Amino acid sequence: xxxxxxxxxxxxxxxxxxxxxxxxxxxxxxxxxxxxxxxxxxxxxxxxxxxxxxxxxxxxxxxxxxxxxxxxxxxxxxxxxxxxxxxxxxxxxxxxxxxxxxxxxxxxxxxxxxxxxxxxxxxxxxxxxxxxxxxxxxxxxxxxxxxxxxxxxxxxxxxxxxxxxxxxxxxxxxxxxxxxxxxxxxxxxxxxxxxxxxxxxxxxxxxxxxxxxxxxxxxxxxxxxxxxxxxxx
Length: 233
Known about the structure:
- This protein is of the alpha+beta class.
- The protein has nine helices and six strands.
- The protein has helices at residues 19-26, 33-41, 50-60, 65-69, 73-77, 84-101, 114-121, 162-171, 192-208, and strands spanning 109-110, 132-138, 143-152, 176-182, 212-219, 222-225.
- The protein has a six-stranded mixed β-sheet with strand order 1-3-2-4-5-6, sandwiched between helices.
- Helix 2 packs across helix 3.
- It is elongated, with a radius of gyration of 23 Å.
- Residues 1-6 have low confidence and may be disordered.
């Protein structure tokens, strides 16, 4: 009697169950997360289909796309059937989705509170396992004209050079600057280095007539505003 313990490839599925055909016939919203990832990777391995492999990857991330977006090439390549090219495809697709959320409308965003600042920059820090330092440049109406990555480092910290920060501000004719950086550890308490850097930048900003309005420390759980906490005084 013929045995049926071998895996059936996606090509052998009913057409309406294949991810690509399902998207084409029923629309993108009809697909599960695993089916969408299966389209990205194209094929599985000798033991499982692309959909089964995708389900295994999602299971390892607790079915959390934010966790998946934090994985690097080496992390994804640990799954049998995922090589460097497929890992890069997954990472690129998730990054494109993040950037879509971050699309800024043509109208400049005006900030009046630390929450406004947080909402305008938090997406830049999504899915990071390392520290980055970003600045926001504002015009005289307190509207954000641009965002700039100043430096990136490891999990322990990053070095922000005051000369680079004010060079960017001067080149872009900024009226004022807001500093931001993240703490991957989740600790919102500013370090001594954070406090000293902020004091140095505030002093330089006063001299150049480009005031530092605030400095935000951002984590996955929220943020701390130096201005709100009286740490800019």
